[in-house]
Amino acid sequence: xxxxQTLSRALALTLALSSPxxxxxxxxxxEDQLQFFATCTGRLSALMEHQxxxxxxxxxxxxxxxxxxxxxxxxxxxxxDSQRVLLWRVEAKHAQAALLQQAAFGGGTAAxxxxxxxxxxxxxxxxxxx
Length: 130
What we know:
There is one protein chain. The protein is mainly α. It has one domain (35-127). Helix content is 91%, strand content 0%. It is globular and about 45 Å long.
């Protein structure tokens, strides 16, 4: 019986010590998901506005994707997350708009690079919706 009590205590101690790490890991994953969804929402907003100038019909699909991504943000966000979510969205929208402007109005390899980066970021975001 003494060996069983020792084993039981060791197991309880292991669970107690691993529990905070598990909670931290779960919280960290949720935080990463929220930031990813918020960032993609901002990127899709920038693309939609860019498409208004150059490809109106494509902006409808992008709007639908942006709305779907926003639904994911709302599904995982807590009430206290609203300021951080807005910051992530605005920063991502600004950065994506800069890439799109460079790709559309820049020249040479800088424009090609901006387009390639923009396309890659959009693929990452839209893949999450598939």
